[in-house]
Amino acid sequence: MIAVTDLTMRYGDALAVDDLTFEVRPGLVTGFLGPNGAGKSTTMRVILGLETPDAGTALVGGRPYVSFRRPMREVGALLDAGAVHGGRTAAMHLRCLARSNDIGRERVGEVLEQVGLAEVAGRRIAGFSLGMRQRLGIAAALLGDPGVLMFDEPVNGLDPEGIRWIRELMRRLAGEGRTVLVSSHLMSEMALTADHLVVIGRGRLVADTAMAELAARFEGDVLVRAAGQEAFAHVLRASGASVREEPGGLSVTGLDASRIGELALRHGVALRELTPRGASLEEAFMELTEDSLEFAAEGSTR
């Protein structure tokens, strides 16, 4: 498990992380979501001991990352796929990492096969595409077979097949009982990958919730067009719905479309339209973070 408690991080006068607290539990893919500049990468760097916070703690399994003698056996991380020596081959890069953490050489071949780079193991990294470098970074994260994994924007540079592969990999790792933290600024990606969400903006916690709960929280309405609309509105309200008139129809919340249809049938109301209208998760994300955007285009909704 990862536990971040009262974490604060400054760069000069800039407050990057502001009294942030959350936990990442094993057995789930936890999405770490926020606009660009929200403090996601800084938080992950603090967890990995690459930054020293001004206040608070970030622990892995109850311990600071720097206390691990062989950290790659405990925590695997992909932060920057470009931070590799371009003159080395993929296999050489992983062998160096393996040697530093007392990991057997045979594991190098296993992870290269796992990420689809076995055929280019002898090629120099300088000739790799961004997507290939991402796969190599994921291989490095998996090298020590750790129980905790952290990925910062892992789908960058991947083609559609690669994106589907990384989604399936994360779910499989979480299904094995590992702790998986994945950062992104795209709700659409997290909606297809994460079980739980930690959303931050300007370094502060905005939401810490299950994906299903977030979807329910931003559940939309049902558009109803019917003969005898005014009388049917009374029926809906008597059944516990909230009803708002709009041009040509009714906006109904509190009852789903199937229940509205049953009421219409029971009361002999002819329905002309019955359309569920759900707010997209992207819209939910924008609503959650609208006050946390570092930059907003002119005319954007704030």
TrEMBL record:
Keywords attached to this entry: ATP-binding, Nucleotide-binding, Transport
Family under the similarity heading: Belongs to the ABC transporter superfamily.
InterPro entries on file: AAA+_ATPase, ABC_transporter-like_ATP-bd, ABC_transporter-like_CS, P-loop_NTPase
Gene3D superfamilies: P-loop containing nucleotide triphosphate hydrolases
Domain ABC transporter: 2-227
GO molecular function: ATP binding; ATP hydrolysis activity
Name of the protein: ATP-binding cassette domain-containing protein
Organism of this sequence: Nonomuraea deserti
Residue ranges of coiled coil: none
